[in-house]
């Protein structure tokens, strides 16, 4: 139930639709009850009891305690006034009254649903936006432990489940309980004895339905988790299709996917069959109650015993009202099933929304503008899991200098790029920019000082122009073309059918690896930040493109602070300082020539690459 309350918080901006929905449902319940009450004068006419209920004097209102008698006398008076005691005309009058009641009921029902559409779809939109916003906000560490398909399932199918579970119950919150309250009030007026007798059986019905629905949440959670699993398999397949085909692994992935969908098939069957049990069980129990009413009420009518003095027409109205209680009662029991099913989806969505972001801006964080003196790594240590990948790492990078980080794979080079950008926070020590701990800065102002080119060229399914404008949304076409020229990318972009407006496909797959990397370099050039972080920026380029881009990068890095993470050592020989890492620790530090002359770790790395 807590999850239901949490979801309803998103309804606040749509309270005007909620109020309209509630008002219309009140009228729906009222006219629904009155439509059965209006049957009484018609049945009196049919059973030739109309004359006994004809009132020639307009009744007077004497208070709520006599409201039932007043309504009955008022209807009789109006019927007598318009029909002059003619039973055929009286029948037409009553039929018209019944049609009017049902018309008003259905108009109210339509407008209740009309307002609910805006309420429900608005909540779903805001909820989906909130899940996406939180997904983008959460640190990379959160997603390293999650399957992408599971996240996709939560944003899509789980949110959709809520639309047809929790939010569909909004319709039942007012309408069905009010219908039951209005109807039972009239039933109590007609025959308190019979109504109290019926109430004995209603708790029995509730207990049986509750027992059937107990396992729905668990079964639903199992279905949704399995859906996340096969969506993960689908996402991995689309991402790695080239490798799957290259290794003839189509059958292996096909089997994996089919195993998951088979489990989903069995879990779904159990869930839906349990859910389908709600309607026939509640209907059968409802008919049992109707049968009890027929038996007990019929005896009262036939013997004319009890305090209610039921006559035949009033008893038939009472039976109609009993049916009017049965329909919303079934809807409520079905709604309880749906809520239990939706509980699993709400829990999975709430898990993302409630996840604490350890990298969130602290209160009073500084909005830093510009970069003035230096970047200092002050005795930092960091681990992704159990083992430290950086240990007691200290480094001073003055403004305008280029520092290269080299070392074997796993030595911690890319980790430094992750830490300076605050994709992760250090476990020990601190990173300072102009003497300020980066944890004291707003993340947006920190990253505004940084231009990032990653080892993997990450591009999006959009035009070249829009991909580059991630770095500078205000950039003109001329500035975009200039950035492309600096990155040695204009030579192939100008030959494309639509130039910078050409769509590059999913992940830029319409381009070669080298072309994608040059576009990612152009994106960083266009941003023109004071600090550049180049994580294996030239690793995907062929030898000729590497040489040309290297010249462009060197020109771009003049008068700019640069952290260059390099695998190809030939690209960093002109760096102001080269830092050699091994197992997360600095083992050598200095200029290229000095490190070569030392004939230490750096010398061996250069020799190995030269030999290669």
Automatic annotation (TrEMBL):
<dbReference type="Pfam" id="PF00664">
    <property type="entry name" value="ABC_membrane"/>
</dbReference>
<keyword id="KW-0813">Transport</keyword>
<dbReference type="InterPro" id="IPR027417">
    <property type="entry name" value="P-loop_NTPase"/>
</dbReference>
<dbReference type="InterPro" id="IPR011527">
    <property type="entry name" value="ABC1_TM_dom"/>
</dbReference>
<keyword id="KW-0067">ATP-binding</keyword>
<dbReference type="InterPro" id="IPR003593">
    <property type="entry name" value="AAA+_ATPase"/>
</dbReference>
<dbReference type="GO" id="GO:0005524">
    <property type="term" value="F:ATP binding"/>
</dbReference>
<feature type="transmembrane region" description="Helical">
    <location>
        <begin position="90"/>
        <end position="119"/>
    </location>
</feature>
<dbReference type="GO" id="GO:0015421">
    <property type="term" value="F:ABC-type oligopeptide transporter activity"/>
</dbReference>
<feature type="transmembrane region" description="Helical">
    <location>
        <begin position="284"/>
        <end position="302"/>
    </location>
</feature>
<keyword id="KW-1133">Transmembrane helix</keyword>
<feature type="domain" description="ABC transmembrane type-1">
    <location>
        <begin position="22"/>
        <end position="341"/>
    </location>
</feature>
<dbReference type="GO" id="GO:0016887">
    <property type="term" value="F:ATP hydrolysis activity"/>
</dbReference>
<feature type="transmembrane region" description="Helical">
    <location>
        <begin position="196"/>
        <end position="213"/>
    </location>
</feature>
<keyword id="KW-0547">Nucleotide-binding</keyword>
<feature type="transmembrane region" description="Helical">
    <location>
        <begin position="17"/>
        <end position="39"/>
    </location>
</feature>
<dbReference type="InterPro" id="IPR017871">
    <property type="entry name" value="ABC_transporter-like_CS"/>
</dbReference>
<dbReference type="Pfam" id="PF00005">
    <property type="entry name" value="ABC_tran"/>
</dbReference>
<keyword id="KW-0812">Transmembrane</keyword>
<dbReference type="InterPro" id="IPR003439">
    <property type="entry name" value="ABC_transporter-like_ATP-bd"/>
</dbReference>
<dbReference type="GO" id="GO:0005886">
    <property type="term" value="C:plasma membrane"/>
</dbReference>
<dbReference type="InterPro" id="IPR036640">
    <property type="entry name" value="ABC1_TM_sf"/>
</dbReference>
<protein>
    <submittedName>
        <fullName>ABC transporter ATP-binding protein</fullName>
    </submittedName>
</protein>
<feature type="domain" description="ABC transporter">
    <location>
        <begin position="375"/>
        <end position="608"/>
    </location>
</feature>
<dbReference type="InterPro" id="IPR039421">
    <property type="entry name" value="Type_1_exporter"/>
</dbReference>
<keyword id="KW-0472">Membrane</keyword>
């Amino acid at each position: 139930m807590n999850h239901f309350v949490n979801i309803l918080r998103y309804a606040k901006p749509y309270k005007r639709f909620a109020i309209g929905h509630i008002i219309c449902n009140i009228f729906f319940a009222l006219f629904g009850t009155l439509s059965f009450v209006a049957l009484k004068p018609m049945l009196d006419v049919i059973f030739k009891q109309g004359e006994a209920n004809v009132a020639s004097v307009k009744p007077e209102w004497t208070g709520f305690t006599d409201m039932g008698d007043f309504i009955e006398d008022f209807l009789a008076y109006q019927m007598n006034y318009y029909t002059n005691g003619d039973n055929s005309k009286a029948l037409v009058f009553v039929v018209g009254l019944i049609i009017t009641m049902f018309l008003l009921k259905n108009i109210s029902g339509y407008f209740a649903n009309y307002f609910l559409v805006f309420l429900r779809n608005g909540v779903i939109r805001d909820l989906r936006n909130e899940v996406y916003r939180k997904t983008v906000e959460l640190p990379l560490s959160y997603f390293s432990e999650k399957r992408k398909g599971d996240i996709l399932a939560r944003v899509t199918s789980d949110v959709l489940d809520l639309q047809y579970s929790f939010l569909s119950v909004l319709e039942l919150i007012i309408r069905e309980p009010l219908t039951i309250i209005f109807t039972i009030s009239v039933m109590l007026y007609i025959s308190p004895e019979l109504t109290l007798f019926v109430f004995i059986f209603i708790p029995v019905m509730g207990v049986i339905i509750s027992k059937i629905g107990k396992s729905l949440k668990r079964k639903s959670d199992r279905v949704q988790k399995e859906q996340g699993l096969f969506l993960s398999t689908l996402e991995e397949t689309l991402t790695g299709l080239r490798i799957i085909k290259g290794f003839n692994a189509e059958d292996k992935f096909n089997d994996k996917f089919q195993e998951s969908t088979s489990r989903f098939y069995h879990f779904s069957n159990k869930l839906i069959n349990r859910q389908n049990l709600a309607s026939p069980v509640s209907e059968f129990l409802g008919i049992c109650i109707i049968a009890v009413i027929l038996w007990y009420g019929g005896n009262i009518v036939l013997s004319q015993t009890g305090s209610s003095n039921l006559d035949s027409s009033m008893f038939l109205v009472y039976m109609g009202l009993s049916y009017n209680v049965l329909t919303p009662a079934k809807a409520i029991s079905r709604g309880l099933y749906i809520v239990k099913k939706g509980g699993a989806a709400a829990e999975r969505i709430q898990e993302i929304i409630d996840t604490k972001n350890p990298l969130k801006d602290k209160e009073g964080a500084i909005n830093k503008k510009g970069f003035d003196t230096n970047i200092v790594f002050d005795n930092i240590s960091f681990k992704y899991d159990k083992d430290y990948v950086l240990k007691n790492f200290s480094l001073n990078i003055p403004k305008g200098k280029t520092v290269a980080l080299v070392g074997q794979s796993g030595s911690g080079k890319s980790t430094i790029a992750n830490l300076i950008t605050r994709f992760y926070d250090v476990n020990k020590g601190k990173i300072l920019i102009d003497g300020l701990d980066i944890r004291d800065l707003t993340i947006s102002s920190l990253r505004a000082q940084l231009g990032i080119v990653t080892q993997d060229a990450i591009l999006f399914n959009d035009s070249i122009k829009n991909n580059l404008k991630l770095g500078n949304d205000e950039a003109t076409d001329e500035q975009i073309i200039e950035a492309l020229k600096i990155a040695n990318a204009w030579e192939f972009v100008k030959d494309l059918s639509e130039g910078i407006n050409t769509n590059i496909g999913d992940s830029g797959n319409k381009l070669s690896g080298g072309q994608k990397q040059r576009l990612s370099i152009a994106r960083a050039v266009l941003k023109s930040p004071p600090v550049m972080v180049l994580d294996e920026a030239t690793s995907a380029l062929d030898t000729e493109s590497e040489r040309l881009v290297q010249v462009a990068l060197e020109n771009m890095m003049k008068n700019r602070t640069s952290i260059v993470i390099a695998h190809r050592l030939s690209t960093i020989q002109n760096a102001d300082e080269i830092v050699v890492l091994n197992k997360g620790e600095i083992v050598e530090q200095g200029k290229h020539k000095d490190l070569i002359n030392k004939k230490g770790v750096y010398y061996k790395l250069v020799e190995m690459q030269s030999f290669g």
